[in-house]
Design brief:
- With 232 residues, this protein is an all-alpha fold.
- It folds into 2 domains: 2-67, no CATH class; 115-231, Cytochrome c-like domain (Cytochrome Bc1 Complex, Chain D, domain 2), CATH 1.10.760.10.
- The chain contains 9 helices and no strands.
- The chain has helices spanning 2-19, 64-67, 90-96, 121-130, 140-158, 167-170, 186-190, 193-202, 216-231.
- Helix 4 packs across helix 8 and helix 5 crosses helix 9 (216-231).
- The longest helix has 19 residues, at 140-158.
Length: 232
């Protein structure tokens, strides 16, 4: 009897140990000897996966979508090599771009610039009322730079002409659920510059933010380009 109980316990112990080394398959890595052995605590940017494998405490988990978004700068800081310049003539920009003998080190122009509005409807209206002037001049060069930026980030939804008939809407058998804004409609022609800038910074409806895609100067160049489409 004593040997039988010992044999049973031995078999149970062996089965339990064997289960700890179960083989991996598909998205399963098998059982782990200890947590985080197979699943790293790090996460991949822009990758949606079972991030909850990496934590023991389920109450402190963050959404994968939140973790995979581009991270902003530390509050009150400016990344090294970036500078913000309010347009005050071509000579000032040339200094920042390294074309001046006194400052031969070029920096990304307007890589960082403060934005003093929260993402609320009230703040959007205040931004439109207060931000009435494009701080950069409209030039042939700026429009040429803005066209590919508009085509990449805006045109797919708002259309090459700005009429809201982008590829996502006009493609064959399209079932895109949200009609993009017609940027050449009368209400958008009458809209203040701040309405466009606010939308770039925070997005609107199903449109996401493009603050991390476009620099301060590029945002205003794109707005100039939208105005040129309205002028046509």
């Amino acid at each position: 009897m004593k040997y039988a109980i010992g044999a049973i316990l031995g078999v149970a112990l062996f089965a339990w140990l064997f289960s700890l080394c179960s083989p991996a398959g598909k998205n399963k890595t098998g059982h782990e000897y200890f947590p985080d052995m197979a699943h790293p605590v790090s996460y991949e940017a822009n990758l949606y996966s079972a991030y909850d494998w990496n934590h023991w405490d389920k109450d402190n988990l963050k959404k994968t979508a939140e973790l995979s978004q581009p991270k902003g700068k530390v509050a009150g800081t400016v990344p090294r090599g970036y500078t913000g310049v309010y347009y005050n003539g071509a000579a000032e920009l040339d200094k920042v771009r390294g074309k001046n003998a006194a400052n031969a080190i070029a920096a990304p122009v307007n890589g960082q610039a403060p934005f003093y509005y929260e993402n609320t409807e009230e703040e959007r209206l205040r931004c439109e009322q207060e931000m009435t002037v494009n701080p950069f001049p409209v030039t042939k060069e700026s429009l040429e730079k803005a066209k590919p930026l508009y085509d990449i980030y805006c045109g797919i939804c708002h259309g090459e002409k700005g009429d809201g008939q982008g590829w996502l809407v006009s493609m064959t058998d399209s079932k895109y659920p949200a009609q993009p804004k017609n940027l050449i409609a009368d209400d958008m022609k009458a809209a203040g510059e701040g309405r466009y800038y606010f939308a770039i910074m925070y997005g609107k409806n199903v449109m996401g933010s493009y603050a991390d895609k476009l620099s301060f100067e590029e945002r205003w160049q794109v707005i100039h380009y939208i105005r040129s489409l309205q002028a046509k």
